[in-house]
Design brief:
The chain is mainly alpha-helical. Helices cover 47% and strands 7% of the residues. It has one domain.
Length: 151
């Protein structure tokens, strides 16, 4: 038994696929949403002290830093929060650029790369990373945008 479904049967489907194709060419709305989700993921990395956890500060680093009132020992990458709040924020240090085919999120804080990748004297504490559960949210946002375009 066979069922043949050829291009002539696809009239309504082709129309929908054309809408989706045109929408996918200009995904600015999706990339803006994705950028926001990336910023949320990176911010949660800071709030959690790394995901996975960053190495703790050395005792000598803690001694050098000022102690906040009632906050206990300083936390890695959170002494001033300058780096965390710069990610994707509209400021001289934040990067958030949305296009039709991409989004760029980041920071221009000069010392960011040293924390992300580490140095000879400092362990890497990667903060610019999107977690798996957040990647799923981004995929869902893309699917929602495609569904919206297909209507």
């Amino acid at each position: 038994m066979q069922f043949k479904y050829d291009i002539q049967n696809l009239g309504p489907v082709l129309g929908t696929l054309r809408k989706v194709k045109n929408s996918v060419k200009h995904m600015r709305a999706f990339f803006k949403t994705a950028g926001g989700l990336i910023i949320e993921s990176v911010t949660r990395n800071f709030m959690a002290g790394g995901r996975p956890k960053w190495e703790p500060l050395t005792p000598s680093t803690i001694r050098r830093r000022r102690q906040g009132e009632g906050t206990g020992a300083p936390k890695p990458l959170r002494d001033t929060n300058v780096l965390m709040v710069s990610i994707g924020r509209p400021s001289k240090d934040g990067i958030f650029e949305v296009g039709n085919k991409e989004v760029t999120v980041g920071t221009n804080v000069p010392y960011a790369r040293y924390h992300q990748f580490g140095t000879r004297h400092m362990p890497a504490r990667p903060f610019m990373m999107v977690q798996k559960e957040d990647e799923q949210k981004i995929v869902q946002a893309a699917l929602d945008e495609i569904k919206k375009a297909a209507k």
